[in-house]
Amino acid sequence: MSRFPLAAAALAAPLALALLTPAGPASAAEAALPPAALHYGLTVAGLPIARADLSLDDRGGRYDADVEWRTVGIAGIFAAASGKVAAQGRLVGGRPHPRAYRLIERNGDTPFDVAMALSGGRVGRLVVEPPAKIGEDIVPVEAEHLRGVIDPLSAALIPGSTPASAVCDRTLPIFDGWSRWDVRLTAKTTLETAPTGMRGPTVVCSARWVPIAGHREGHRSVRYMAENRDLEVRLARLPDRDLWLPVEASVGTMIGTARATLETVTTGGR
To answer: Percentage of residues in the chain with pLDDT exceeding 70?
Structure first.
């Protein structure tokens, strides 16, 4: 999955960098609406390990967002890491249509960098560092795996016009620059309330991670995640924007549950 667990698949975590087609001038109301800021905490087995800040600017059906994250607590002392994921695109037909994606991560002495352009769901220009690994046990990424995809951050965006009953009715075909995988969502339950700063209801989806290409076939961690039933994401809407966003996401891991939780929201200058 993503180098930072949950920033891509769940954050929310989750959004693409440039526009599929030029948009008309924004209305006065759209131009006056400042970006929304959502702040998440990430824990593993109940211990805080990272914080992530999502900045989202959406107007005229297009989106421009980024997530900046850094390790905290003991993780910040013994495994300091930080990064930024950015994206832009359009929301059309109830789904995100990204144009570009960028990831920059520093994890100790190892840098990770992805610059990816997309058009019509097809990956165009792609630069990754380090290069994708090649080996007998790695399922190769073929040309077919670069079509009909979205980036990990855009996958976290669902237009608010989508009815609550249909929010979980989707499979997210994700390519992160190194590997191709699906996240299959199914409806679990709906809660009438929402976290402070968001608008209810809250939709709860079960999730499954399905590796397609770029992974080590038969590797213990791949088998564990592919068989993992302990994946869940909760989504609610921003009060002044027509958009569903993750408010909580959890993934069972070999060392305990990793959980991203929305802590505070700032929208409309509040």
So the answer is: 86
pLDDT tens for 138-175 read 999 999 999 999 999 999 988 888 999 999 999 999 99
How far apart CA 25 and CA 30 sit, in angstroms, is 10
Do the beta carbons of residue 50 and residue 259 sit within 8 Å?
no
Contact between 235 and 246 under an 8 Å Cβ cutoff? The reply is: yes
Per-domain boundaries in the chain: 28-266
Supply the Cα-derived Rg of the chain in whole angstroms: 18
Contact, 197 vs 270, CB < 8 A? no
How would you label 171-195 residue by residue, b for 16+ Cβ within 10 Å and e otherwise? ebbbbbbbbbbbbbbeeeeeeeebb
pLDDT 10s digits, 208-228: 999 999 999 889 989 999 999
pTM: 0.83
Backbone dihedral angles phi then psi of residue 166, each to the nearest 5 degrees: -110, -5
